[in-house]
Amino acid sequence: SLWRLLAEVGDYAAADSVLSVALATERRREPGGIREANVLNELGLSQYESGDYAGAARSWRASLAYDERTKPPGDIDLNIGRTNLSNALADLGEIDEAAVLMETAADELRRYHPGDLTLYNTLGNLAALRNDQGRPADAAALLRESLDGTRVLHGDLHPKVAFRLGSLGSALGMLRRDREAEPLLRESVAIYDSLFEAGHPNQSYALRALAGTLLRLGQLTEAEEVGRRAVTISADGFGDDNVKTAQARLVLAEVVLASGRAAEAERLLRQIRPVLDESLPDRHWDRAFAASYLGDALRRQGRRADAEPLLRAGLTTLRRTLGDDDPRTRDAAAR
């Protein structure tokens, strides 16, 4: 109880200390027992919230080992444990291991708990990992299943439905199926607007995906308006220096660049690259996009010698991460 209070006020160091004392106590009382596993799970939550993804992964891996020994297949808590560990591994850049865990959880939940919200949440998480693996078509199929199930449970006007719509629209945009993506993204934004007067932080995902879709459809003026709103909502909800806000600014920079304002795009990209580099793994495509866009901005200003290394670096990462046939890789090659 004390660690939760400390975490609520943002004192994660103190929360971790309290849980470490609890963990040592339970290991003396009953090594490898259920109380130790419960404390490890709570410790993982605290570590994850504080950004200690490596620590969270260690704690959750140990907790999951106990659950896999003692709980039956299909147990909800067992599969939530798999999901937690998968999320921590994904944030550490261990995408393939994370995907295996999430796929196992999804398969068991489909078998034992069809129609349960936990299944649809897990499918959404697995879709995000499929995107990270450069498999947006698989992600789109999972997201459509997740969206349909979430609508059955919650109706049309619900934040979870809005989030799923935004995720599916984003995946379709990655596939350059922008005509299909646009109405889904607009519906997502409209649901958030109807439910939250000042906007919701998660709305920034749909807004930045919509900005990218509008850009590719040639609607530059609206794309910039939507992109700037994505940045504002993300900064208000997550913080101005948060990686999610940097990702929203990345889309805005792409729109500004396409509008012919290379110097302004350069300033935006130089502002966000340190945040992306610090927060995302080396192979993450947003880091590659930032390098490629910055190279393009420099090229448009006649600074070719500075541009070429950035353009090549971005393309190399995208080829390694997404493959040569991905539309985003082809765009980087064209730049």
Write the topology of this structure.
Blueprint: H1 2-8, H2 12-29, H3 34-49, H4 53-70, H5 76-91, H6 95-112, H7 117-132, H8 136-154, H9 159-174, H10 178-195, H11 203-216, H12 220-238, H13 243-258, H14 262-279, H15 285-300, H16 304-321, H17 327-334
What would your notes on this structure say?
The structure is a single chain. With about 325 residues, this protein is mostly helical. The chain is about 80% helix and about 0% strand. The protein has helices at about 1-10, 10-30, 35-50, 55-70, 75-90, 95-110, 115-130, 135-155, 160-175, 180-195, 205-215, 220-240, 245-260, 260-280, 285-300, 305-320, 325-335. The longest helix is centred in the middle third of the chain and has 19 residues, at about 135-155. The protein starts with a helix and ends with a helix. The model has no long low-confidence stretch (mean pLDDT about 90).
